[in-house]
Request: fold
Amino acid sequence: MALEAGVDREEAVHKPSLDPLSRLLGSDLEHVNRLIIDRMQSPVALIPRLAGHIVASGGKRLRPMLTLGCARLCGYRGTRHVTLAAAVEFIHTATLLHDDVVDASDLRRGRETANAVWGNQPAILVGDFLFSRSFELMVEDGSLHILQILSRASSIIAEGEVLQLMTQNNLQTTETSYLEVIRAKTAELFAAASRIGAVVAERPHEEEMALDRFGRDLGIAFQLVDDLLDFSARQSELGKSIGDDFRDGKVTLPILLAFARGNDEERSFWRRTLEDMDQCPADLEHATTLVERHGALTETLSRARGYAASAIDALSVFPDGAERRALIEAASFATERSA
Reply:
């Protein structure tokens, strides 16, 4: 797949990464990680074992980094953002545990999923435990406004997962419905994580909503790239087995575009593999050929870059500085990790 086409020489030399943001937040991130480890402890031994398994499985801590980075962007110099970043990560981790059960996933970032090791029931219940821990942290913070933002985000994420079940195996899904799913299940937490950075800093409503837009558009871009990487990435890049979405019958934008642009024979293939769930080992390779043939991956990446550009534009209300530059690079990373 020639996704690298059109990347200019400067981009080729400097590939965007999360490193500048991670370095900037080094001490804060260490405090967040210590708090996560402390708050996932329980006298019920299976809980910290299972929770520790998924926490240790890696991940870039992007969502809590958004809370920390946006708080610093807004000039905050207290400690509340550390507690709230941990709450955000607990929400995210809980949804991962639940998602892996729903999707019957066996691998996450190259390691066995918690449900593969301990079974579905413990994974679901420990996910519930982590959700509860996140709300304990929110209550400790004491801000009703932040509690409102994060609790609403949790509800919308759950709605997004249910919406995805309704679109699964359904090739009549519209692009509007698809975007509604990813706005809810992915972008909502990105938006909330970013927005509360302005709230703890007691910044004006304009800045609060600018960070909401930044996180929301960044989340959409991130999910669009995840969906195209299902057909192209190495397992270590994506954090799950390649082709998982295809095998689960998830209808993503690359598939919608390829289906709309395909001939009758190709559409029959998509109906057999996704609606009837009649798949054979060679089908993933053929599906990849079709999304490439019809430019669906390139189009999806182009859309993702558009959302990333919108996210970066949302930061224009803030003065230039190390924090703003690091957040801009994080937005670029969300799409360029596909190159």
User: Anything to note?
Assistant: The domain at 10-336 is CATH 1.10.600.10 (Farnesyl Diphosphate Synthase). The two ends are 10 Å apart (CA to CA).
